[in-house]
Write a structure and sequence with these properties.
By secondary structure, this protein is α+β, with helices and mostly antiparallel strands. Helix content is 63%, strand content 10%. It has helices at 2-17, 65-79, 105-115, 130-141, 144-157, 161-172, 178-201, 208-244, 264-302, 304-309, 312-325, 336-349, 357-366, 372-383, 389-401, 411-422, 424-427, 432-449, and strands at residues 20-28, 34-44, 49-59, 86-92, 253-254, 261-262, 327-328, 331-332. The strands form 3 sheets. Strands 3-2-1-4 form a 4-stranded mixed sheet, sandwiched between helices. α1 packs across α16 (411-422). The model is unreliable at 93-102 (pLDDT under 50).
Length: 450
């Protein structure tokens, strides 16, 4: 009942905002049933703040685009939200949160003794979270000698034959393989940079303008790394090899077409290093193209320098194009010509302290009804999601609540507990007197009926 009351407060906020975006993500729970998290992103019109609200988990059977759409449509109808008010979407349905890696107490004790109190612990490799991947690689990249020592101890002392075999193979091949060290240095450098940008994009206050600049910077880094990164990675890998007592040599590769030997270093550079970098750049360019589409439509709003120096004809053209983009049926969210006139005045009186769209939105809030079209345009701009990080974060609550000990919990109880946990601040705004009164009324009706 408290969760329902909390959800009603959230829905009220969304109604007041009118325009909202939907963020969806799926993950299997511990009972191997697919759970879809629904997050709504909107602008709180009373505070001019970007808010992302959790509305619950849905158990889904069909993960196709059509199946997810119908699940979402039914959920919005049940909540009393109008699907026509959606202005942005964010989906990431490849999440597959895995369970914790199981390590024996004995193996863990040996490892901890070798790395000491200040060392980095080994991490399980996550399929979805960049930061976890960086931590996984970092622990090996900077502690290879200590990890080798721990494995050698296990190989020489473990009473379990399978444990001895695995430890021996890791020591004999991976930890005496220069190409393995080179791979570590390459992956760590790439993951570290991507993770840095990824974390900055995950803020709920992030807007498309800043996201585009971040993506531009990331692509430029990869261009530079493609030309200069291999030699730098080689130098770092040689340092690790020296510390491990390993020769910094490559395996010779025979060219199947000419039957002539090919330099192992050149083969590795072309078929491993360049392949990884080019694949990453292709992926980032695809994401960047999606952002560029928004830049073409909303760019004049979030680039305040561009807004300030645009000619009136250019500004009118941009505003009319935005009106057309926001048109649904016979109506549009804004009047393009009126928006142009408002922006001509606004860019003159806008305080110099306003450097980002969120600053402009706060200025418009203080101005009341002076700039109605600009108020709507900036709310829609800031409603568009940059990442699906907020949906992924809800899964951490799912793991805490829907534990192995309570895997038979009903869906209603799961959603209720997750609502109170994730939207704790909103839950504290619930009028508990009304909830208690409703609770008492239900019990009285139940007693009479019985």
């Amino acid at each position: 009942m408290i969760a329902d009351a909390t959800r009603k407060l959230i829905v009220k906020k969304i109604h007041e905002a009118k325009y909202f975006s939907v963020i969806l993500d799926c993950t299997p729970d511990v009972s191997r049933r697919e759970q879809m998290s629904i997050i709504i992103r909107c602008v709180d019109v009373s505070t001019a703040r970007i808010e992302e609200y959790y509305l619950g988990f849905l158990r889904v059977e069909d993960k196709t685009g059509e199946g997810l759409f119908f699940e979402l449509e039914d959920a919005l109808i049940n909540l009393g939200l109008n699907i026509d008010d959606i202005r942005g979407q964010g989906y990431d349905n490849e999440a597959n949160m895995k369970g914790k890696h199981k390590a024996s107490t004995n193996r863990w004790d040996v490892f901890k003794e070798e790395i000491g109190k200040k060392g980095w612990t080994l991490k399980p490799l996550s399929d979805t979270r960049w930061e976890s991947r960086v931590s996984s690689v970092k622990a090996i990249r900077y502690q290879a000698p200590k990890i080798r020592n721990a494995l050698e101890r296990l190989r020489d002392s473990s009473p379990m034959s399978q444990e001895v075999s695995i430890a021996d193979s890791l020591v004999s091949f991976d930890l005496h393989n220069f190409e393995f060290y080179l791979s570590l240095t390459i992956w760590y450098r790439l993951m570290f940079v991507v993770n840095t940008v990824s974390k900055s994009l995950q803020s709920k206050d992030m807007d498309i303008g800043v996201a585009i600049q971040q993506m531009k910077g990331l692509i430029e880094f990869f261009k530079y790394f493609r030309v200069n990164g291999f030699q730098k990675a080689m130098d770092e890998a040689k340092e690790i090899a020296r510390a491990m007592g390993t020769e910094p040599t490559f395996r010779e590769v025979r060219n199947t077409r000419t039957t002539e030997p090919t330099s192992g270093e050149e083969f590795f550079r072309k078929n491993y290093f360049l392949y990884i970098v080019d694949s990453a750049m292709s992926s980032f360019r695809t994401r960047f193209e999606q952002f560029q589409m928004y830049e073409e439509i909303f760019g004049f709003l979030y680039d305040l320098n561009k807004l300030k120096y645009m000619s009136e004809d250019e500004l009118m053209s941009a505003c009319v194009a935005l009106e057309a983009y926001l048109k649904h049926g016979r109506s549009s969210d804004i009047d393009g010509r009126e928006l142009c006139m408002e922006l001509i005045v606004m860019r003159i009186v806008l305080p110099s302290s306003c450097s980002k769209p969120i600053d402009v939105l706060n200025f418009l809030l203080r101005m009341g009804d002076c700039y109605p079209n600009a108020w709507i345009a900036y709310r829609i701009l800031l409603t568009i999601p940059v990442t699906v990080a907020s949906a992924e974060r809800s899964f951490s609550k799912l793991k805490l609540i829907f534990s192995y000990l309570r895997s038979t919990m009903s869906q209603e109880r799961l959603v209720g507990l997750s609502m109170l946990s994730i939207e704790n601040d909103m839950a504290m705004q619930v009028d508990f007197k009304i909830v208690l009164s409703d609770f008492a009324s239900r019990n009285v009706r139940r007693v009479i009926f019985e």
